[in-house]
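Input structure tokens:
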């Protein structure tokens, strides 16, 4: 059985040559390859997407070793590839795979006409539906704030807790607090280091990242208002407790320390946040969902200033913020509709019982007596 995504080293020679050329930096007389500016993560994702296409061709017994990328990516093959993916993956995954294939084709065979592939990419993206409904997963900012306060109270005042357990509670509370204030991505969250990416400026603490560290390649700075006491308490008391768990000093100036005294990775930060919120709130709030809570809350409570979420989240394009704004307005509309329905029900008169509803009152028409005659032998309705 072939591998799901063929590694670059296993690609046919023409594909490897085109891929290397796309990533080669030119000299004084040569231009850079079209993929030189890609971040390592982007390169890895696009390579995986093209490797997935090559893997499909292997299973279809249609991989010509000497063909170029331009000759290998044809309409009939891609149509069959899409059908193959649809049998196995969600619509968003199918759209993502074709986007990755489109980007690989663009940089590996820049002279070819890829308009048909770009059109297919756009159509699949428009037809795709989210794999997860974030509306059911989000928690309100008030709920998260209450959780943070509760974790701090337990870390400081719970009886019978060891210093190690208090340190973990306070660390997790501070993680949630930082995510609530500026919502850095998990990679940036894990990279917070005292004195460099986490800086004290006067009485405030700031996060500061260079453009190289950011997804959109733009420098990012943001204050952490209201967290001064929590940060200093963690650095002075609880972080040293966690650092001491390691027999060798490996923590350096990393802010987030694991239970074994080592710096936390981005993956581990995500796991800790997810598990803590799942345990305490009954829902998994991963770090990325915090990036949706902020604009959603602004859209509900202060829609006129929802645009401030863009610089806070480091979005290069307001359309990214706008998607969360639309989600927030939809949630707000649903809540308001529910409130209206509840108010109508509260004002509505109680329903009459069946035997009362069957009776009719005599008419009070002034033009003449009522035509209704009372029954002589009136009996109650049977239950």
């Amino acid at each position: 059985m072939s591998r799901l995504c063929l590694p670059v080293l296993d690609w046919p020679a023409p594909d490897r040559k085109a891929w290397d050329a796309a990533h080669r930096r030119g000299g004084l007389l040569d231009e850079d390859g079209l993929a030189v500016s890609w971040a390592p993560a982007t390169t890895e994702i696009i390579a995986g997407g093209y490797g997935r296409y090559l893997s499909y061709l292997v299973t279809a017994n249609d991989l010509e070793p000497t063909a170029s990328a331009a000759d290998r990516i044809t309409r009939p093959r891609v149509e069959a590839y899409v059908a193959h993916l649809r049998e196995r993956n969600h619509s968003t995954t199918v759209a993502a795979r074709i986007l990755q294939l489109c980007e690989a084709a663009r940089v590996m065979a820049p002279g070819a006409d890829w308009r048909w592939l770009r059109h297919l990419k756009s159509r699949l993206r428009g037809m795709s539906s989210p794999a997860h409904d974030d509306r059911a997963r989000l928690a309100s900012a008030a709920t998260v704030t209450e959780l943070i306060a509760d974790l701090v109270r337990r870390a400081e005042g719970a009886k019978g807790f060891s210093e190690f357990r208090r340190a973990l509670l306070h660390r997790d509370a501070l993680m949630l607090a930082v995510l609530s204030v500026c919502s850095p991505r998990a990679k940036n969250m894990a990279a917070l280091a005292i004195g460099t990416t986490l800086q004290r400026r006067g009485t405030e603490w700031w996060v500061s990242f260079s453009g190289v560290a950011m997804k959109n390649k733009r420098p990012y700075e943001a204050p952490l208002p209201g967290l001064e006491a929590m940060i200093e308490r963690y650095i002075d008391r609880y972080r040293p407790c966690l650092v001491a768990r390691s027999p060798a000093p490996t923590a350096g100036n990393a802010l987030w320390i694991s239970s074994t005294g080592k710096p936390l990775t981005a993956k581990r930060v995500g796991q800790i946040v997810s598990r803590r919120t799942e345990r305490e709130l009954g829902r998994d709030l991963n770090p990325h969902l915090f990036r949706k809570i902020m604009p959603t809350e602004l859209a509900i409570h202060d829609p006129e200033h929802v645009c401030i979420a863009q610089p806070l989240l480091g979005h290069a394009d307001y359309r990214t913020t706008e998607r969360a704004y639309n989600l927030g307005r939809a949630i707000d509309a649903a809540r308001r509709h529910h409130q209206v329905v509840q108010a109508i029900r509260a004002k509505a008169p109680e329903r009459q019982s069946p035997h009362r509803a069957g009776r009719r009152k005599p008419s009070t028409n002034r033009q003449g007596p009522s035509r209704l005659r009372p029954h002589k032998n009136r009996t109650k309705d049977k239950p």
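The chain has 15 helices and three strands. Residues 298-303, 305-338, 350-383 have pLDDT under 50 and may be disordered.
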